[in-house]
Design brief:
Oligomer: homodimer
Distance between the termini of chain A: 44 Å
Largest interface: A-B, 71 and 71 residues
Number of strands of chain A: 9
Order of helices and strands of chain A: HEHHEHEHHEEEHEHEEH
Number of helices of chain A: 9
Shape of chain A: globular
Strand content of chain A: 15-25%
Helix content of chain A: 40-55%
Chain lengths: 212, 212
């Protein structure tokens, strides 16, 4: 990767690009050589001009009437989305969700390398899940620094969310991936990504009730 | 619950309300009796007038200078968000994420009652996780209908996402909760909620690279 400061890409584009990637990976697996934005548009129900605009963010050009080379497009998408670099991460809270993330081999394909987990339960210390060791939470600061982890994944009960976030930032992580429904606050320089699955439920229920 | 057709609440409000709920639940657990929108605003860094506007969606009134009764506000938020009704759901794909969802006791507190799971792996049929049985995927249609499940949770590998969605809709579910990065399509009446955790990673990485 080049090391210039990258531009802030609008979030809607960053949310669409992984759809294209998932589709292009399917095409590569079934041996397709080329794909056009029209074909992606038809399959994913996204406007073709929107797709062409999104893909113009990448350093790739399609060929007239043939489209993009599938393996190259997959590679460029992965690179652009940061999935080909390794980001060191720790999990705090080795409950069912924390364990599932540790065991999800998919995350490393998406550039997330979980190196350690922490929990307050002494019975969990010494265990490992998906090959990732669990340590007592008291060792967190030292181990995060030692490992040079930049991402802290928060899967603790909601009442410990903010104090966990504070401790992770203090230990040096640059980004918090918050799976609790609590709205965290942190210094300006810290990135917070909220993935509260419960909030998604509220939206889904409302759409179901209102008949869409 | 009343059975009138509910209004379509704007998604940003539906995403903020669970933050208020998580905070109000904390307050109730620590024994606080009243909370004002000013206090919520200070704690969650959301504009106080925005909070007042969001809470005006609920059938509740705060008292001047005292604010809202904490247990009542919690109850009204849970009710409004659909968390106090039971929505029957099935999980398709009992891999690490599927199992984690089955074992997550939090989901039932948020109104989601997972009644069965399905997997193509014959070794998983007959197992149960968090008390929820796993069945062969061939039994899906019959069991979804029998259970009257309205929500289908998709945690299969990406190449099976669309065919799983089609089968769930055919079996009668009204909403699909898609955890794969694939962009599903379905008939107009079907609600699709996308929770691709990998898409969140792309946004987080970009924010980290660009120095926020």
């Amino acid at each position: 990767m080049t090391d210039f400061q990258r531009d802030l890409i609008p979030e809607p584009a960053l949310r669409r690009l992984p759809w294209y990637l998932a589709y292009v990976t399917l095409l590569r697996e079934r041996g397709d050589e080329f794909v056009s934005s029209t074909q992606i548009s038809r399959e994913l129900k996204v406007d073709a001009s929107q797709i062409a605009k999104d893909l113009s963010l990448l350093d790739i050009r399609g060929k007239t009437r043939i489209g993009y080379e599938v393996p190259l497009l997959e590679h460029k998408l992965e690179e652009f989305l940061g999935f080909r670099r390794s980001h060191r991460a720790v999990v705090v809270g080795a409950g069912s969700l924390g364990k599932a993330l540790m065991q999800d081999s998919g995350l490393s394909r998406y550039g997330l390398n979980i190196v350690a987990a922490f929990d307050t339960d002494p019975a969990l210390a010494g265990m490992s899940y998906g090959g990732i060791p669990v340590y007592p939470v008291g060792e967190m600061t030292a181990r995060v620094k030692e490992a040079g982890a930049t991402v802290g994944i928060i899967t603790v009960p909601v009442e410990h969310a903010q104090s966990t976030a504070d401790a992770l930032v203090e230990a040096g992580v640059k980004a918090l991936w918050n799976f609790t429904p609590f709205r965290l606050s942190a210094n300006d320089g810290v990135i917070i990504s909220n993935t509260s699955i419960y909030a998604h439920l509220a939206v889904m229920y409302n759409r179901m009730e209102s008949g869409k």
